[in-house]
Fold this protein.
Amino acid sequence: MRRLLAGCWIVFLIANLAQAQGLLVNTNPGERVPLPRPILPHPPHPRPESPPSTYKIKEISVQVKLSDQVAKTQVSQTFVNTGSAQMEVCFVFPLPYDGAIDQLTLLVDGKEFPARLLPAPEARRIYEEIVRKNRDPALLEWVGTGMFKTSVFPVPPGAERKVTLRYSQLCRKDQGLTDYLFPLSTAKYSSQPVEKLDFQVAIESTTDIKNVYSPSHGVDVKRPDNKHATISLRVANQVPTSDFRLIYDSGRGEVGASLISYRRDGADDGYFLMLATPEIKAPNAELPNKTVVFVVDRSGSMSGQKIEQAKGALKFVLNNLRAGDMFNIVAYDSSVESFRPELQRFDEPTRSAALGFVDGLFAGGSTNISGALTAALEQLKDTSRPNFVIFLTDGLPTTGEQNEAKIVALATENNKVRARVFAFGVGYDVNSRLLDKLARENYGQSAFVRPNEDIEAHVSRLYARIGSPVMTELKIRFEFDAAPAEQTAAVNRIYPADIHDLFAGEQLVVVGRYKKSGPAKILLQGKVGDAEQKFEFPATFIEKSNDDSNGFIEKLWAVRRVGQIIDELDLKGQNEELVKELVTLSTQHGILTPYTSFLADESNDRHDVASNRQRATRQLKALDEYSGESGVSQRLGKESLKVAGQPGAPRAMSADGAGGAAVAQGFSRGARPQSTYFDAAKDRQVAVDTVQNIGRKTFYRRGDHWVDGSLTKEQEAKPIKIERFSADYFRLVDKHGKEAALYLNIEEPILVELGGQAYEF
């Protein structure tokens, strides 16, 4: 049988840190075979020749053990030859930029294969030869690294080969955080989506693990005790296009905080990410006592399943209170009734009595929202403990005070103890803007339960989070070693802007901008029980980043800022300057929202700021809808932007590079790279193939080109034209390194800025 792919390689990438992922690359001098991709409806121009044989990646299984800074990784990847001819392949992987790999083992279907080291110059020559021969830029990202290479083994047509790699490596530490990276994006070189991806990381530390965070994916993190954590990611039938990244730190003390910063060359502002996590308490550990008042709607519209779910949520809270907690229940329709006239101390007799009260609730009557809130808040007198009001309604106020502004003002006036009001809107017949205002003015959050969702599940999830407050009345300060008189200007626009409490098992993710660089101190101050406590942590705000590995911080900040802008426009009314900033940030970072979705239109001129601002202003009028499906969906989407990147955050709306709340960029079957935005009118994600985020840049499809969103109108009009795969093309890779390789990796014609100059390929 003819060996169509003689000399094919599986390329296994380890870049920067412990990481692993493979693909097959044809190196036969007599053949031109670009890497496989899912079928593109708009093929690159000029279209590469179809390979005579191709493959798919069927399964990727990754197990990682991180012991302090040492990573031990095992990767199993199953390939299937989907062609009709036998493939002859060998296993090749580039070397990491820093740190040495040891204990390296390569297995093919259980048989060990020896590996040979190729230094970076020889590896670069091989990479460039493959790119030139196949006229396929996909391998450019690996130029500049060395590689290991195994001997050849066959893959018959239709057959599977399971390649397993085991190795250990010392991970890089960046600003106090251990940094682990795994390039899942190489799995895009597969003719079909990956059927199964299973990623498991186990962290074991000699000191207490404080912060565990993935800026790239929404992962499941379990922390059985202070020194262990397990992280899992499972994906089916997708083609991953973003690399997996995990950062964590450890140390001693009740609260741990770490800060990493990022500043592009020449940028006025830098961006920082701060992670803070309290000590994981044992199940029987003593926690501060709290007060919880549950305010439940029992109006006629709550009849049936809704009232039963609300009663289930009430019972969950009652069964999870602790000895020493205070509580009460306020039920309302047109009238207001309390379980007891005043707060009750939680014990077994009061729990049993309260459960009986809950069983006796039934739906009927109108909706007196203001009266219920007044009855609940007037019971709260004690400022020495955390106070929480869980307020639930499924309708609009129909009796008592019905004016939106007055209801909020009355509640705020009656809230003498800074109680946190968590407002739940059930169904679409609620005033979602009223609930947002109520929560914002009273130190809490709003949440919305769609008609097909379970009230009990939503409330239980909230209470599981807030049930164990560790530090309340939280304040964060940043003190720089230099220029103490300018502290207020040194750090600005910090999000979330309204941090009040730190809960056991919850990780705080804070982003902001900074102007000053250099050593600094983070001060966390608040109440632990009724005692004031302060924790200090060292931090460094870097003057200039050496690369874009932490560029996700700027993107995450931009997403949260967009959410904050929409919130201000929603709750305070139209503001021309805010609309302008919304359009600017959305354009720069490719953040598509219901109000900036016009950026995905190929005919849109992103340089026409005035016209785009007018379009955004018109689309923002949708915020006038405070009830119905669109009104509720808009508030859900707004909140998901405001808390982007927060573990467990809602994901109704998303944006690339935002830590697990990233825009769903990737390939679906028969599609090219996609981004998504949230269509509030239809309450669903919409995929577009005219916007893609790569590295720190956003590219917009205009005609048959991908155009760099950072180009000015003048730069875009006078590009230097470079022929792909020419000597000048590879000289650009030499000059700009990984940055250029990342963008030249786009298969279709592109217009991109490099070093202040526009280039067209």
Q: What stands out?
A: The chain is about 25% helix and 35% strand.
